Amino acid sequence: MPALRIYAGPEARRHIEREGLRAADVGIVPGAAGGPKGLVLGPLDRFLFGQWLPTTDHTVHLVGASIGAWRMAAACLHDPGAAFDRLEQDYTAQHYELPAGKRRPTAAHVSQRFREAPLQIRVVVSDSSTTRRPPTPIVRAQASLMIRVADSQNFACCDLANGFCFINLSKAALLHRDYLRYHFLEGSVYALLDTQHVVSVHASCVVKNGHGVLFIGDSGAGKSSLAYACARRGWTYVADDATCLIRRRPGRQVLGNPQSFRFRPAVSALFPELRGRVKLRNGRPTVEVRTEALSQLVTAQECTVDYLIFLDRRAQADGPPRLISVSEEECLRGLYTSPWPPELSINQERFAAVERLLKAQRFRMNYLEFDPAIDLLEQTILQGHA
Predict the structure, then answer these.
(1) Tally of domains in the chain
(2) Cα 197 from Cα 201, distance rounded (Å)
(3) Where would I find the beta strands (DSSP E) of 151-291?
(4) Do 247 and 264 reside in the same domain of the chain?
(5) Rounded Cα distance, 360 and 304, in Å
(6) Does 232 share its domain with 354?
(7) What is the C-alpha to C-alpha distance for residues 156 and 178, in angstroms, rounded to an integer?
(8) Rounded to an integer, what distance in angstroms lies between the CA atom of residue 114 and that of residue 197?
(9) Residue of 206, 244, 207, 212 whose CA lies nearest to 225
């Protein structure tokens, strides 16, 4: 049986026989419903939209239903191949915490995942007579308002109570992408997410055999390096320095941003493949590495946390790594912070979300070397879920 069959009416068939099947002759591409069908067509989609159709510059109309509509939306993005990868990953990795006694999520349970009000970000760009990078913005907050002010042309105002942000930027700011992303886009969006939907925890996150593990510790504790060492050993990478606990969802579901790692420059002495350009982030030298450049790594955007690991390398002078049980009270002190003003009335909900996280197994790990520490973690996970 041939891998590909072409069905055509009489006139189209004569044209193909005479001219061949040419991208310039395609006027419409339909995408049918049906999840398995959409996944099976992934390799063909990558060829059609990533290589074949871009050889022409005429308009092609895309029509789709259900997953077919999502396929066509992915095809419109700048990098269709990466977009199809993301679509397939998100589609197959959907996870729902089941209510007690239920074997599958109800329609209402699934709908709840998509009922949250979206954040609103409005950006205005003004002319600029210079290409110089604007100064570092100053951040101030009072009640439900937070402002970032670099100068008269570059500033942002966030309404934390209503999930709204207005950003005014000069064209000069757009020329400095790291400055724009870190100081205005990420800074504003993360603040709105943390006050509206999630609790941001200072922890990296990886997954082994379906069990999420948070590495928790102060800056410099080795969270990113240990997470990367785990990913090199086949673990799934979810988050680097910040993991987001979903507030209005039962269980211990967390979200991450697995698109990059951020390290201190000394990381290249541990992992030579991580050499990169050093940037200043919040005044600290940082090496940022995109995970798409690390071909062997497996990533995911969310997981359920089953282990909380507080890292302590200073307490281990020598010998093998050790795991020491940690009480809920000590865990809570290491996890929960309340940086937002009380006028927002969100602290009770944030605290309840962190309390759910404490139902995971909790340890402090004293260690020196990565491989023995990862061996111990893998053994612990295997024994705990045998």
Answers:
(1) 3
(2) 13
(3) 155-159, 164-170, 198-201, 203-208, 211-216, 236-239, 243-246, 253-255, 260-263, 278-281, 284-290
(4) yes
(5) 10
(6) yes
(7) 17
(8) 12
(9) 206
- Alpha-helical (H) ranges within the chain are 10-19, 35-40, 42-47, 67-75, 80-92, 107-112, 171-174, 177-179, 187-196, 223-232, 267-270, 328-335, 347-357, 370-384
Residue of 8, 7, 6, 73 whose CA lies nearest to 38: 73
Residue 106 region by backbone torsions, left for phi larger than 0, else alpha for psi between -120 and 50, else beta: beta
The enclosing domain of 291 has a CATH number of: 3.40.50
What is the rounded distance in angstroms from the CA atom of residue 64 to the CA atom of residue 317?
A: 61
Q: How far apart are CA 363 and CA 367, in angstroms?
A: 12
Tell me, yes or no, whether 281 and 344 share the same domain.
yes
Q: Are residues 164 and 125 part of one domain?
A: yes
Q: Is residue 160 part of a domain?
A: yes
Co-location of 124 and 153 in the same domain: yes
Mean pLDDT for each 10-residue chunk of the chain (386 residues)? 78 92 92 87 92 91 92 89 84 72 78 78 91 93 94 95 96 92 92 93 93 89 90 93 87 89 82 74 75 85 92 74 92 87 87 92 92 94 74
CA distance 356 to 216: 16
Residue ranges making up the domain that contains 40: 10-90
Which residue type is seen at 319? G
Q: Is the pTM of this model over 0.90?
A: no
If asked whether residues 85 and 127 sit together in one domain, one would say: no
Is 250 found in the same domain as 370? yes
DSSP secondary structure string for all residues of 224-240: HHHHHHHHHTTPEEEES
Q: Is residue 27 domain-shared with residue 161, that is, in the same domain?
A: no
Task: Write out pLDDT tens, residues 192-224.
Answer: 999 999 999 999 999 999 899 999 988 777 899
| Residue 219 in domain | yes
Tell me the two tokens of residue 18. 């005479």
Q: How many helices and strands (H and E) does the chain possess?
A: 14, 20
Contacts of 338 (CB under 8 A, 6+ apart): 347, 350, 351
**Who's near 56: CB < 8 A, 6+ residues apart?**
23, 24, 26
Q: Does 241 map to a domain?
A: yes
In a domain, 217, yes or no: yes
According to DSSP, the β-strands at 284-290 and 211-216 are unpaired
